[in-house]
């Protein structure tokens, strides 16, 4: 029986966190639309649908969906190739249908195979990207658009070189607002009497303070006044007809175009993988350690993308930046996600002029703190102490996410993790009772429960290192599976080198090592009489078989 969830049970904390996410999401929606070569309003539409519709349908408690930076290159290329935004919207609708189908065939279970250190590396990488991208905005240098997460920027700079360029474009007004915003945000979590004001998030106070300060700078004619290009830029419809003209609907004639289906499939695959990665990350961030049904999430994303396309919105995914901001603001349930979507809808219709007064420096400060919490030094220390097999995939994922993109970074981390797993399995194929060999020693080799062809090289090397005149006991009592390659290797060692170099070999627990009856590679402890009967059929004397399979 499914437990009913009361969405209004934690309204105070959820409203405060929803407000914070709204403030973070607004410029990101606009920036990602700009980067995608799409109408600015399409990013807002995607954010509204991602918040209200996907937020309601999803089983995730803190994940937030909306337009994602990871899709910008695909969107920009598709719109350019099609030459029409309405044709592209048909591809988005198709991607939603595919995601819905993926949910029904339970493709979401793939997320269970993402290693923890890789997910943590992805989060830390995203945190560093946020910090690198927002620092220029905090100093008043906005050469790159809000929402861009690419390492190589459109102006030819990269995330690191742009930091040095900041010193040539410092705006003192932005720095003043950044410092004051930072003081407010840190104090709100540290000062006891301010912590009690949970309904009013520190981010809102920081935003209001930024607006008020800049208005004072403007009214007094101060050189600290922040110009319009360093403020939020939201489309402002002046009439209902103008608002209607902003809404674009899909041109379904695109259904007959194979290229539209290819783009739709591409968006569905990339968006689904990014969503599953972000859901896994969101579940790890959740202090209550609740788990999300990823198949339901894929269905919710599919429905969200279909609805978004019908009213001119961009494709969406679950997004780490917004989800992190939601978690850090104290979200308790998915009501915060829904509230953020409602606030986006209300604000763009009712108060766009006021929103356009928000300094980007204030929003950058909020995001920098989010980035720090994702990539705090304690996380690096944690994986360092766990050893190289945990730390190397973590740091490799982080670096690749920062310098390439999220999917490539995660893929690299998973590949390295798999290599380490295989290497670990190679080492665990057997164990020695003695490591240093001296002529005449008795050497014990105990095989593991499973010994596959992957272990062949390691076992071959070990057998080659055994000195002359030794006695070797190879024990397979605990072994369930032995590959034919390994059995052949042991047999060749026993019948050739062992005889030539006076090495006495004793095999224990091998029941069908020579595959006399073509049975599977399983050490299943079949009786000696069974092998005697088989031996008779192939005209092998009982004494020979007994010598080979000594107990």
Automatic annotation (TrEMBL):
<feature type="transmembrane region" description="Helical">
    <location>
        <begin position="391"/>
        <end position="422"/>
    </location>
</feature>
<dbReference type="Pfam" id="PF00916">
    <property type="entry name" value="Sulfate_transp"/>
</dbReference>
<feature type="transmembrane region" description="Helical">
    <location>
        <begin position="166"/>
        <end position="187"/>
    </location>
</feature>
<keyword id="KW-1133">Transmembrane helix</keyword>
<feature type="transmembrane region" description="Helical">
    <location>
        <begin position="199"/>
        <end position="218"/>
    </location>
</feature>
<dbReference type="InterPro" id="IPR001902">
    <property type="entry name" value="SLC26A/SulP_fam"/>
</dbReference>
<protein>
    <submittedName>
        <fullName>Sulfate permease, MFS superfamily</fullName>
    </submittedName>
</protein>
<feature type="transmembrane region" description="Helical">
    <location>
        <begin position="117"/>
        <end position="135"/>
    </location>
</feature>
<feature type="transmembrane region" description="Helical">
    <location>
        <begin position="64"/>
        <end position="81"/>
    </location>
</feature>
<feature type="transmembrane region" description="Helical">
    <location>
        <begin position="87"/>
        <end position="105"/>
    </location>
</feature>
<feature type="transmembrane region" description="Helical">
    <location>
        <begin position="260"/>
        <end position="282"/>
    </location>
</feature>
<feature type="transmembrane region" description="Helical">
    <location>
        <begin position="41"/>
        <end position="57"/>
    </location>
</feature>
<feature type="transmembrane region" description="Helical">
    <location>
        <begin position="342"/>
        <end position="371"/>
    </location>
</feature>
<dbReference type="GO" id="GO:0055085">
    <property type="term" value="P:transmembrane transport"/>
</dbReference>
<keyword id="KW-0472">Membrane</keyword>
<dbReference type="GO" id="GO:0016020">
    <property type="term" value="C:membrane"/>
</dbReference>
<keyword id="KW-0812">Transmembrane</keyword>
<dbReference type="InterPro" id="IPR011547">
    <property type="entry name" value="SLC26A/SulP_dom"/>
</dbReference>
<feature type="domain" description="SLC26A/SulP transporter">
    <location>
        <begin position="11"/>
        <end position="397"/>
    </location>
</feature>
């Amino acid at each position: 029986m499914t437990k009913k969830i009361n969405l209004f049970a934690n309204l105070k904390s959820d409203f405060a966190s929803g407000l914070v996410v709204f403030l973070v999401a607004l410029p990101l929606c606009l920036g990602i639309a700009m980067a995608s070569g799409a109408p600015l309003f399409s990013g807002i539409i995607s954010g509204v649908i991602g918040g209200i519709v996907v937020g309601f349908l999803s089983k995730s408690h803190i994940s937030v969906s909306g337009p994602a930076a990871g899709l910008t290159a695909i969107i920009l290329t598709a719109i350019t190739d099609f030459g029409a935004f309405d044709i592209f919207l048909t591809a988005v609708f198709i991607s939603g249908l595919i995601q819905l189908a993926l949910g029904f065939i339970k493709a979401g279970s793939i997320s269970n195979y993402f290693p923890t250190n890789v997910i943590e590396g992805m989060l830390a990488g995203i945190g560093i990207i946020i910090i690198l991208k927002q620092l220029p905005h905090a100093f008043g240098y906005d050469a790159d658009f809000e929402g861009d997460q690419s390492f190589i920027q459109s102006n030819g700079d990269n995330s690191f070189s742009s930091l040095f360029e900041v010193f040539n474009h410092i705006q003192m007004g932005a720095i003043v607002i950044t410092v004051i915003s930072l003081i407010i945000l840190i104090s709100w979590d540290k000062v006891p009497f301010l912590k009690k004001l949970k309904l009013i998030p520190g981010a809102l106070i920081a935003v209001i303070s930024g607006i008020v300060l800049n208005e004072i700078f403007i009214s007094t004619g101060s050189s600290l006044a922040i110009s319009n290009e360093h403020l939020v830029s939201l489309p402002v419809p002046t009439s209902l007809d103008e608002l209607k003209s902003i809404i674009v609907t899909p041109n379904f004639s695109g259904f007959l175009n194979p290229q539209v289906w290819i783009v739709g499939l591409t968006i569905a695959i990339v968006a689904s993988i990014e969503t599953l990665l972000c859901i896994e990350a969101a579940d790890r961030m959740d202090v209550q350690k609740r788990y999300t049904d990823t198949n339901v999430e894929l269905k919710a994303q599919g429905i969200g993308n279909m609805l978004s396309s019908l009213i001119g919105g961009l494709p969406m995914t679950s997004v780490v930046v917004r989800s992190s901001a939601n978690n850090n603001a104290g979200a308790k349930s998915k009501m915060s996600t829904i509230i953020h979507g409602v606030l986006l809808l209300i604000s763009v219709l009712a108060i766009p002029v006021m929103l356009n007064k928000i300094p980007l420096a204030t929003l950058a400060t909020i995001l920098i703190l989010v980035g720090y919490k994702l990539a705090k030094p304690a996380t690096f220390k944690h994986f360092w102490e766990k050893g190289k097999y945990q730390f190397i995939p973590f740091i490799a994922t982080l670096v690749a996410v920062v310098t390439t993109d999220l999917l490539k970074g995660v893929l690299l981390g998973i590949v390295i993790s798999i290599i380490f797993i295989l290497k670990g399995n190679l080492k665990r194929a057997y164990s020695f009772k003695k490591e240093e060999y001296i002529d005449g020693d008795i050497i014990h080799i105990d095989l593991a429960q499973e010994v596959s062809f992957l272990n062949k090289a390691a076992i071959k090397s070990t057998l080659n290192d055994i000195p002359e005149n030794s006695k070797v006991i190879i024990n397979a009592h605990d072994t369930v599976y032995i590959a034919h390659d390994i059995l052949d290797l042991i047999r060749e060692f026993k019948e050739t080198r062992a005889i030539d170099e006076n090495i006495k070999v004793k095999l224990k627990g091998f029941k069908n090592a020579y595959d006399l009856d073509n049975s599977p590679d399983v050490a299943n402890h079949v009786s000696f009489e069974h092998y005697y009967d088989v031996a008779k059929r192939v005209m092998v004397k009982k004494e020979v078989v007994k010598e080979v399979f000594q107990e």
